[in-house]
Amino acid sequence: MIPWFQYLSFNIGPLTIYAWGFFVALGFLTSFIILLKKSKEVGMDSESLTNLMLLIIVLGFLFARIFHIAFYEPSFFFSNPFEIFKVWNGGFSSFGGLFGAVLGFFIYGSSRSWNKEIYLKIADLLSFSAIFGWIVGRLGCFAIHDHLGQKVDFFLAINTPDGARLEMALLEILWLIPVAIIFLILRKKVKFGDGWFTIILLTEYGFMRFVLDFFRAVDIAHADVRYLGLTPAQYFAIILLISGIFLFYKINKKST
Description:
Strand content: 5-15%
Largest sheet: 3 strands, antiparallel
Shape: globular
Oligomer: single chain
């Protein structure tokens, strides 16, 4: 069992660094470095890539906030509207961030008149880089333990002051590491544009989040809201899974 710890922030001289934000920023940096190194393979220069990433990041954070407000704590924010702007208190939806990123991706592609081939090449590149940045970013969630799970007697549980619980961020990281390894192996066999990186990311992450969210805690403060027994993330996970299967069908149909 993992001993209890919690690192909300740390100091560098007079500067206070918040652990969640630090690892999220480091995750973005990790993905961006990978994107820069691989951008020539999809015909993108560094300026175009930077502009695309800026749009993705801005819309990602905007919709991460909007989705959290709309789907997780609507009554709280309706009663306290000024809290909407207090982003330093937390309250971001990962699937909202993903929605914003996808929206930014299509807005940028439309402005550049990308064809289907370019869309798939860039989508594969983004999917490849995202898996590594996501693992790093989730370390921030693990550091502050904002996604605790149910009480269990399990060697990967964390011994919280309230008892041993699953640590959902840790489980997600452990689930994603084999996918990252598969991506590295697959990278030697296929090129960006074949669709495999996008298909795997959509189906694997959609399936993973749908399953893992059944084990999230329901007996703690700020537990994820349920709609008909499912968390908001599970509904979005279903959409991801269907999208991955649909893309696989379209690509497989085209190649036969």
